[in-house]
Design goal:
It comes from Acidocella aquatica. This is Putative restriction endonuclease domain-containing protein. By secondary structure, the protein is α+β, with helices and mostly antiparallel strands. It has a single domain, classed as Alpha-Beta Complex (tt1808, chain A). The strands form four sheets. A six-stranded mixed sheet has the order 3-6-7-8-9-10, with helices on both faces. A two-stranded antiparallel sheet has the order 1-2. It has a two-stranded antiparallel ribbon with strand order 4-5. Strand 1 and strand 2 form a beta hairpin. The longest helix has 18 residues. The chain is globular.
Length: about 190
């Protein structure tokens, strides 16, 4: 049986191609991977998170960026987390963000396995990343992976509504309730009937 081997793309081929697409893609180091759309709660969680980051980081050297900011991980893969923070100056026309310190992914129905397994490993391979935060989109909850140095193994903490997301590497804290402000989940709606 003859099986055609697919040719790997380069990052430059991916960036050139992706700019003309109507939907968003990530690059897994070999080929484009379509990114799924999220729910309205996903979008609101992102908005609350980004507002909290921008407000608290205003005037400092660290900058929050949104879902169109690329992070190079292993094997030339480029991921587009929901939000990230860098404290490194960058060229606004670049495709990849240098010196990423914190990465945030809001889970969607189809992204859980990738965000919880594949991206944990990929983000761990980026020496500048000190914190990776996974935000639930169907209930209040964060899974926080953190480390002090690049060669350390991630320490994992789970946060709920009563907790505060502390990020000493960028000098800010955000109460979990701020991230989930004004969001109602389906099981909460059923309980109110």
């Amino acid at each position: 049986m003859n099986i055609a081997l697919r040719k790997s793309w380069t990052q430059d081929e991916f960036f050139s191609w992706a700019q003309s697409q109507e939907i968003r893609y990530e690059f897994d180091g070999f080929q484009p991977v379509a990114m799924t759309g999220g729910t309205l709660n996903h979008n609101r969680i992102f908005g609350n998170l980004f507002t909290g980051l921008k407000t608290r980081l205003r005037g400092g050297t660290c900058v929050p960026l949104g879902p169109d900011a690329g992070v190079e991980t292993v094997n030339d893969a480029v991921r587009y987390p929901d939000a990230l923070v860098t404290c490194t100056k960058f060229d606004g026309g670049a495709h990849k963000v240098p010196g990423v310190v914190v990465v945030f992914e809001v889970l969607s129905a189809t992204s859980g396995r990738i965000d919880r397994i594949v991206k944990v490993r990929e983000y761990a391979a980026v020496s500048s990343i000190r914190r990776y935060v996974i935000l639930e989109s169907t209930s209040v909850g964060l899974t926080v992976f953190e480390r002090g140095e690049a060669d350390e193994i991630w320490r994992t903490t789970v946060l709920t509504a009563e907790d505060v997301l502390r990020m000493p590497e960028i000098g800010i804290e955000i109460p979990v309730t701020d991230i989930y402000e004004d969001i109602t989940f389906p099981d909460q709606e059923d309980a109110q009937v």
